[in-house]
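Notes to self, Glycerol-3-phosphate acyltransferase:
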Amino acid sequence: MTLSVPGRSWPANSAPNPRIPPLTDVRCKGVSCARLSMAERCSLMFDPSWSVLLLCGLGGYLLGSVPFGLVLVRLAGLGDIRAIGSGNIGATNVLRTGRKDLALATLVLDSAKGAIAALIALVLAGPLPALVAGGLAVLGHNYPVWLRFKGGKGVATTLGTLLATSWPVGLAACLTWVAVAAAFRYSSLAALVCLALAPVYALFLATPAHAVVFALLAALAWARHHENIRRLLRGEESRIGPKENDPPKTTPYLKRDGGVVGRQASPAFFMN
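result:
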């Protein structure tokens, strides 16, 4: 077996210096990369497969960075969603404007960001670039470059990525969300449980690569939900559906600066 680089080749058992452990690369197929010139090493480093992964990741991140919640609320004339409620750009906070249609549109579009990024990469480049693109779309939603890296929590975008890269895992995660939400009436708890189980589902329904990526996305979601986790532990997290001490639906919803926007909606049923 030989390593071929334009103009040069070596047998597989060659070594530059027996006293120095050879620097190997999986693409060198066991041949010491220490014998390569800097230009030849760069030609291996910038292998087209890595270029594709980088392009898919960048495209996914930029698509995920589009803050649909912020855009829709502004187009509706309701101001800056970051000045309302929790300041989050996700569908849950958009619902606090009293506009369920805007919240639903935000939920669908945020999910579509992960799904579209992954599907485009899947068609053009394959399964691994699709995982990279979808994962980076979630990262873009959580840390959007356009908003100084202050974004949402990524649940909807993550579920969109799961459905696009492995629909059985995505479907199982969505059904888990529905089951936990119906049983305990906590949207945040349902999101945390379904994303934590997604890597387990992937081990049986997809591949180890899917399981690794889904585990990373679950860890990111748990980190972004740290405040929700604290409220759950204290028993202070808002439940899905009306509560006895809820204000009437006609109560104006206050902005963070004391202004008024829309009307108070029912407790959030949507995902961030």
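- The first strand starts at residue 2 and ends at 5.
- Strands lie at 2-5, 8-11, 252-254, 260-263.
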